[in-house]
Amino acid sequence: MISKSFRINCICRILLFSATLGLFFYLCLQTRFYATCLILAVLILFQVASLLDYVNKSNQLLCRAFESVLHEDFSERLDTSLQDSSFREVCESLNRIIARFQSNRLEKEQQFHYLQEIVQQTGMGLISVKADGEINLINKSARNMLQLPHVHHMRQLEAANTALGNLLGQLKSGEKRYIDIENKNHSIQVAVHAKEIRLQGEHYRLFTLQNIQSELEEKEMDAWKNLIRVLSHEIMNSVTPISSLAATANLLIGSGNTIHPSDIDDLRQAMQTIEKRSCGLMQFVRNYRRFARIPEPHRQLVPVTVLFGRIENLIKPSLEQGTVRFSTSVKPDSLQLHVDPDLIEQVLLNLLSNAIEAVQENQRPEIELRAELNDRSAPVIRVGDNGKGIPEDVLPKIFIPFFTTRPAGSGIGLSLSRQIMRLHGGSIRVKSEPGVRTEFSLLF
Fold first, then answer.
1. Numbers of helices and strands, H then E, in the chain
2. Which of 193, 211, 367, 411 could bond to 404 as cystine, CB 3.0-4.6 Å?
3. Cβ 195 vs Cβ 174: under 8 Å
């Protein structure tokens, strides 16, 4: 910061001051030139005052520059037309620093306005709340969802929508909930996610509100289409032969006269087929009722080792019919699940039954059942096999109710398993490499 000329100027002044001081003491001690000594004393005082004034000017320039930075007043510029070259260099350096601060400030302001515009224009609602309940940020999407053009405190939000206000007060950091928000014209379903942050020593709670109504309606329509397609397919498969055979039987019976002996066998076969298809249709309806009436889970703490032991005993007869190598593992051994053991047992039996059937054509069939903690320390149960796998085009359809690729399959096992996992607040995932490995994961 101190220029070379400033250093040289100070050194010259100090040397001149030292020489004058030395001459003053010499004349005072060795001669009787008292008038000259007096003049030298005055000159010494002048040199000291001049040096202090020179240094003070430099300090004043620095103070003015630092005050500008401190108060973020970057409009002032230091005078660079001074006669002293050292001060000109100092002023030029300080002006460059002020200009850099001004440039950084403008850049930050532009970034801030850019981010503000993004926050306001994003389709997701954002609400930031201070520790005292003051709302310091609410974007346009959130105001439109809540139909609150002006809201500055959580009390105002709670007064306008009590359910949402209570939910925001209960949500913990990282937690996600769903809520129906009633507006004047319609109702929308919103996913609310909470996050706690600290900024400059102050505590904030950030809430995101995502309107998932359109996505839900789209998924619902897709589900209905798939369900109707499957239902119509199954019903038509049963009703078409029943209708055809009933017409044949009616034709054989005729107008009420005695049946010709040659037609009795055809009539008996038609009746048997009608009975068989009717029973199949009834079984389909029973499976549908079973899928639609899953009981609410009665949760309890269950050690996974105990659960796996019960499963192994149940599938042992199926394993003994072939040469399937079955292995289980639980890490850690003390792992427990807060679940309904009967329902989760049903899910595991469905997955293991599918795995046993999938490995039948393998010369070295292997099925693995293991439980562990994932990277979020959440329990995961994995069912893996080295069977024929699931084709890529079939994979997205396996959880559709009544969809099956097995001749004797009901098509509700996997969809039922997904429903049970959802009732437990979990999910079921699958990844398959045909002919290599298929793995279903139960995430709790």
1. 11, 12
2. 411
3. yes
Query: Are 320 and 278 part of one and the same domain?
Result: no
Checking 214-219 for CB contacts under 8 A at 24+ apart, the result is 216/189
Report the SS3 class of residue 322.
Answer: coil
Whether pTM exceeds 0.90: no
Instruction: Tell me which residue range forms the domain holding 285.
Output: 216-292
- The CATH number of the domain holding residue 373 is 3.30.565.10
Tokens representing 249 are 């039987």
Q: pLDDT of the chain along its 444 residues, tens only?
A: 455 666 777 788 888 888 888 888 888 888 878 788 888 888 888 888 888 877 777 777 667 666 766 666 656 665 555 545 555 666 676 677 777 777 887 888 888 788 778 778 777 888 888 888 888 888 888 888 888 778 888 888 888 788 888 888 888 888 888 888 776 556 677 888 888 888 877 888 888 888 776 676 676 666 666 666 666 666 666 666 666 666 666 666 655 556 666 666 766 676 776 666 677 666 666 655 665 566 778 889 999 999 998 888 888 777 766 678 888 899 988 999 999 888 888 889 889 888 888 888 888 888 899 999 888 788 999 999 988 888 888 887 787 766 676 655 556 778 788 888 888 888 888 888 888 889 999 988
Same domain, yes or no: 229 and 259: yes
Backbone Cα Rg of the chain: 43
Domain boundary among 49, 80, 109: 109
Domain membership of residue 79 (yes or no) is yes
d(CA 119, CA 331): 44
For the chain, the domain total comes to: 4
